Amino acid sequence: MSLFDLTGKVVLITGSSRGIGKASAIACAAQGAKVVISSRKQDACDAVAAEINAGFGEGTAIAVAANISDKAALQHLVDETRRGFGRIDVLVCNAASNPYYGPQAGIPDDQFRKILDNNIISNHWLISMVVPEMRERRDGSIVIVSSIGGLRGSTVIGAYCISKAADMQLARNLAHEYGPDNIRVNCIAPGLIKTDFAKALWDDEAKVAERNATTPLRRIGEPEEIAGAVVYLASAASAFMTGQTMVIDGGVTI
Fold first, then answer.
1. Distances (CA, A) of 185 to 23, 56, 153
2. Residue among 100, 160, 178, 232 flagged as catalytic
3. For residue 124, which of 146, 100, 144 has the smallest C-alpha distance?
């Protein structure tokens, strides 16, 4: 059996109707997993699930819309996943929000709270919902998609960076709590990736050229280049890894 084989595993991925989440769902399905597609809009989720089912066989993917800011909606997502596939082996907390670009001093309270609620507290909620069954089986992997913003300061996306640093600490804390039950909790910290979510940061050709000039690989990343790390953390290949943050940024932070 391949170290990366996910046959028989059920992988729930938030924010998976596009970008890193979608690429990760496709990569997990390619390794034999059943995948749950979730984002705010049901039609967008349905489209991705249909694409995966067409490529990997009917019944590989199901679609369940959920707004990560709504605790009841997240519980519905978990319940529907169990109803459809019977279990949750891997949770990938990928969905996040960043409604504000600008100096920290100028961020409205409601937008700051939204970032913290959606990027930290929603992860705490969702993890708490799936952990009991993982503890019972003494097996599970939780992946939080953080950002290199959590490792650096910023004058433009400061609140987002704060939330992503907190996600790394959330993973460390939970790795301690759940490690005795053989549940692993890790983060991935992407650099700038060409997604709709990060479009404000890569849509300006001059700014991207400037960024590329100081990036060892001389380019920004693609969603598929993060998906491999999700497969690794979901699979037996990473069985002895927990509480860590994998940085995948083309070398920017070195």
1. 20, 28, 24
2. 160
3. 144
Exposed/middle/buried for residue 75 (C-beta within 10 Å: 0-12, 13-18, 19+)? middle
Residue 232 is a catalytic residue: no
- 167 pLDDT tier (thresholds 50, 70, 90): very high
Please check the confidence at residue 87 and state whether its pLDDT lies above 80.
yes
**CA dist., res. 37 & res. 77, Å (int):** 10
Q: 89 with 141: CB under 8 angstroms?
A: yes
Q: Is the entire prediction scored with pTM above 0.90?
A: yes
Structure token digits, residue 70: 């709504």
- Residue that wins the pLDDT comparison between 194 and 70: 70
Look at residue 54 and tell me whether its pLDDT is greater than 70: yes
The confidence band for 95, taking pLDDT boundaries of 50, 70 and 90, is very high
Q: Across-strand partners of 93?
A: 144
Could you tell me which residues are beta bridge partners of residue 157? Answer: 102
C-alpha span between 29 and 35 (Å, rounded): 7
H helices present in the chain, as ranges: 19-30, 42-56, 71-85, 109-116, 122-137, 158-178, 199-202, 205-213, 224-234
